[in-house]
Amino acid sequence: MNFWLILRLAIRSLSRNPGRSLLTALGIIIGIAAVIAVIAVGQGASSALRNQISSMGSNLLVIFPGSSQAGGFRGGAGTQQNLTQEDSEAIQRETHHLVALSPVVRGGAQSIFRENNWATSLQGVNPDYLRVRNWDLQEGDNFTEADIRSGTRVCLLGNTVAEQLSPGESLVGKSIRIRNMPFWVLGVLAPKGSTAWGQDQDDVIVLPWTTLRRTLQNSRFNNFSQIIISLDSLDNLDAVRAEISALLRQRHRIATGADDDFTITDMTEITQTITQVSTLMTLLLTVIASISLVVGGIGIMNIMLVSVTERTREIGLRLAVGARRRDLLLQFLVESMVLSGIGGLIGMGVGVGAALVVARTNNWPVLISTHSILIAFIFSAGVGIFFGFYPAWRAARLDPIESLRRE
Amino acid sequence: MLIRLENISKYYLMGDQKIPALNGIHLEIAQGDFVAIMGASGSGKSTLLNLLGCLDRPSEGCYRLDEQEVSQLNADALAALRNRKIGFVFQNFNLLARTSALENVELPLYYTPGFTAAERRRRAIELLTRLGLKDRFHHYPNQLSGGQQQRVAIARALVNRPPLILADEPTGNLDSRAGTEIMTLFRELNAEGITLVMVTHEPDIAAYARRTIHMRDGVIQ
Ligand SMILES: Nc1ncnc2c1ncn2[C@@H]1O[C@H](COP(=O)(O)OP(=O)(O)OP(=O)(O)O)[C@@H](O)[C@H]1O
Ligand SMILES: [Mg+2]
Questions:
Q1: Which of the four, A19, A202, A388, B111, has the lowest number of CB atoms within 10 Å?
Q2: B158-172 tens-digit pLDDT
Q3: CA–CA separation, A195 vs A129, rounded Å?
Q4: Helix (H, G, I), strand (E, B) or coil at B215
Q5: How far is CA A375 from the centre of its chain?
């Protein structure tokens, strides 16, 4: 008998008992649906996280000033005011692999346009900031070095701020008020979405750092909250960190063996952690899904054993009319394979549906890889073969005379 | 000679007890013969028929079917032999439930290499038509009378055109009219040259055969 014939006969024999076949396949259906959905959801979630991280800029280095130290008391990171414009210029000048660098001075203020007002955070930076953050302008233009030098009252609005101050109407070329001082809006930034921890990156006003320091904060100091740097490649991350560290230690005259008075952080740690967590989640859920597949397989084995017992006389008859033992082995093996294969197909449908729903409700990208579908199908067929083998072997081992005599 | 049994014995082992079912049987059946086997219950008739049908191997002795020694053949070779040379008819018909008459008749051909679906179907239609079941092709066994079921079973036994038909009490579950029909059919088949060996308890059924063998306690009398 060729394989297609056996397959046809198996399908016919299973369709004689459609209700039972479906119930038998239910375990596999659930198992495969779980595998597909879990992998799709897991991959969707982690890619959503990755997108958010890369929206912040993945090959970024951020330098914070160190903690202040006074007579044994140490403040938190950033409490010291030792990250200066000179440091920034030195790094810009002497470090390799830099793409762009910008100082950041943080602040906050109420912004007002006509009858609307909105409390938001201020980022005092230089024109390169947008390049560092890989951030585009939705409309309008960036400010320039000249604006930095003269501390012009100009600003760029984050998308949320623009939306809040003037819904549906462009603010470019108009004047808004920040702390009751008029500021010229040069541009509106493209939306960037939330960070991985849910902070709205578009709720910000970007302006020249000199303007923020001098005009809004009334400060004559040239120190920064942070310096943010983008690199040409993540591969050079460690080298650049070392270079900057050595440079700042030298500039700040830190003795060998003493602690840094600054901190350099990068995004790789966060990326790694998130990847680890999502890998772990996927692994865990896959284990659960696999267990349900095994349970489904045992269900198939159980019903196939019942079926072999019920069809003992059929088996005896087939042997009498010339079936070889391997024909019977194959017949029952193919039956359980078809059972679990069809279960697998239905399960795929259910799983893809579930994944779509979950992805839709969470706004994740839908990632149903052919890879995971293939794995699921091979798995379900494999479950059929593995758990179908024992019943099939039992069938093939029956004695024709005894089987024919069975009532 | 189609069948030649020499000194055939068959024991069943029950624990360490040896239960003899056949004791040194000698039997020759020529091509074209029609033999009825009679005897008391437990005399070994079915055991003998199963041996003839290559469903079982003798404990001792030598069995030549169609000039071929079969008592030493392996299981696959015996299966092929049953498929080509032997048709079985059972007391309880042994048709596959929820399977049409046509498909039941086709069954042995699934295990014969080289048959296409069309050829299988053609042969089954031909035989069922011949056995008067022309308008019962797609009936399931439970939609047929006992006599009709047995005729489907006979069509199945004939489908591979074997030289030998073995029947264990083929009329045992039928009323006398249906039994007579089956026997008339057997006579016809025999007239075409098919060899038949049939176990029966009823003398008037045995009367249809060319000769009758009587068994007692595992020997032929
Ligand atoms: N599988 C078996 N195990 C043990 N003993 C068996 C087995 N099959 C048959 N026997 C014994 O062999 C003997 C012959 O049995 P067999 O079935 O051939 O009798 P029979 O002539 O067909 O009887 P009946 O007319 O009742 O069908 C009996 O004594 C029976 O108990
Ligand atoms: Mg008997």
A1: A19
A2: 999 999 999 999 999
A3: 18
A4: strand
A5: 21
Any idea where the domains of chain A sit in the sequence?
3-52+272-405, 81-260
Nearest to A332 by CA among A389, A270, A250: A389
E strand segments, chain B: 3-14, 17-29, 34-39, 60-65, 68-69, 86-89, 164-168, 195-199, 211-216, 219-220
Look up the ipTM and state it. Answer: 0.96
**Site of tokens 């079917």:** B65
Q: Which residues of B30-130 form beta strands (DSSP E)?
A: 34-39, 60-65, 68-69, 86-89
Residues near ion ligand 2 (CB < 5 Å) are B 46
pLDDT at B54 over 90: yes
pLDDT higher than threshold 80 for residue A286:
no
The answer to whether the Cβ–Cβ distance between B80 and A327 falls below 8 Å is no
Q: Amino acid letter at A126?
A: N
Question: How far apart, in whole angstroms, are the C-alpha atoms of residue B103 and residue B95?
Answer: 10
- Nearest 10 degrees: Cα torsion B37, B41, B47, B53: 40
Compute the nearest-CA separation of A344 from chain B (Å). 27
Query: Of the bound ligands, which one is closest to the alpha carbon of residue B37?
Result: 1
Residue A265: enclosing H or E segment and its boundaries? strand A262-266
Please compute the mean of the pLDDT values over residues B182-202 and round it to a whole number.
Answer: 96
Within 8 A of A327 by CB-CB distance, chain B residues are 111
Taking each helix axis from N to C terminus, what angle separates A312-320 and A268-310, rounded to the nearest 10 degrees?
70
Q: For residues A211 and A180, what is the distance between their CA atoms, to the nearest angstrom? A: 14
- The tens digit of pLDDT for each residue in A82-118 reads 888 889 999 999 898 888 999 999 999 999 998 899 9
* Digit-coded pLDDT (tens) for A20-75: 899 888 888 988 888 888 777 777 777 777 776 666 666 788 898 876 555 555 55
Q: Which residue has the tokens 């119930």?
A: A23
Range of the structural domain that residue B209 is part of: 3-220
Chain A interface, best mutation among B46, B48, B74, B90, by max A CB count within 10 A: B90
> Which CATH number covers residue B37?
3.40.50.300
